[in-house]
Structure formats: C-alpha cells, structure tokens
Amino acid sequence: MRILQWGEDRRFDEMRSNLGKLAVFWTFQAVWVWTVSLPITVVNSRDRDPSIKPGDIVGWIIWSMGMSVEATADQQKLAFKNSSANRGKWCNVGLWRFSRHPNYFGEIFLWWGIFVASTPVLEGAEWLVVLGPIFLTLLLLFVSGIPLLEESADKKFGSVREYQLYKKTTSPVIPLPPVVYGKLPAWLKAAVLFEFPLYSRNFPPEQGSNWYRKAGEKVASD
Length: 222
Hints:
Radius of gyration: 20 Å
Largest sheet: none
Strand content: under 5%
Distance between the termini: 42 Å
Number of strands: 0
Structural class: mainly alpha
Number of domains: 1
Number of helices: 11
Helix content: 55-70%
Low-confidence stretches: 206-212
Order of helices and strands: HHHHHHHHHHH
C-alpha cells in the first residue's frame, strides 16, 4: 500500500543501477524468507494430523498479539506520515509513544508464535527450525532493522531536545510506559530491554549532550 501511494521504494535507490548489488540483495531476501519460514515448512511437510495441543493455542495467541501490534503500529505510522502537520517530525503517537520500534516488536513476536505453534509436531533434528525466529530476531536487532533506523533518526533529529528526551525515555523494542522506562538503570535497559550501545553510536550530538544528560537526571528525579 505504501509503494502504491509513494510510487517507489527508496531502499532500492542505490541498487537499481548496480546489477551485482541487486542480485546480492535479492539472494539475501530469499535466504531470509526460507530461514524464517522453516517452522511452517516443516509442519506443512508432515503427513499426519495430530490433535490440537496447548502449544498450538499458545503459539496462535502469541502470533495474534504480534500481528495486531505490527499492523497497528504500521497503520499509525502511515497515518502520521500522511499528515502534512507532521512533516519533518518523528512518529511518537499511539504505540510509538511506548516503543521506538513497535512494528519490529510485533514482527519478532509473531514469528516466535509460529515457532511455538509448530513445537507439538517437531521431532529430533526438526527442532533446528528454531533458527528461523532466532535469525529474524538477530537480524532486526543487530543488522538491517533497528541499528539502521536509529542511526537515520539520530542524524535527522539528534539535535532536537524533544527527540533526545523521547529516546531517553522510550524503550527501543518492548513497549513500556515512558515514565517507567526513563527511570530504569542503563544496565537493566541493556541486559533485558535491548537498549544496546550500537543504537546510540552517534548520539547525542556534542551540541546536545549536556542537555541530554540534564534531561536524564530530571527523569530520574521525577
């Protein structure tokens, strides 16, 4: 829907003129799809039809929650971008008030749900299909997902005080109330809530560092 509305996918801009880069990109996409689909592929390859187990129900619930969060977050961001009043601003409405990347939280959650739903029929080496959700999670957390978007947002808004406070008090992945997240110690954020240093390699900028530090002190004292 976004491509039909905007007319292009800017992620392809650097690849359209280079066949080699485009081939590498599409090959990686094929590997990605094949890997994350492993639980579905294995389940659909079985010729038996077992009864519904608790793992099925738990998996479906996790998938439903993940799908709902991702779809809602995507729609909220699309509506935010379509408003002329929000030009040049970062999305901080709806689920984006509680997570800097709620759509990725939903994406990770739904694929783990699919894996859980596949567990009642897995046997022996088939448990290796857990590599599917692990691969997706690592990819979004450390490679092509959050790191790239964090770097881009920091370049655009890093000198804006409101954005500095938003980043200080908003969880990167798991939705949490800002008043709660902002008061948590840095070690807990990194160990449990995925607030890794690579998300802030160029943040805050020098001109905003003192304000950022004072904002953090204010959040902690409130």
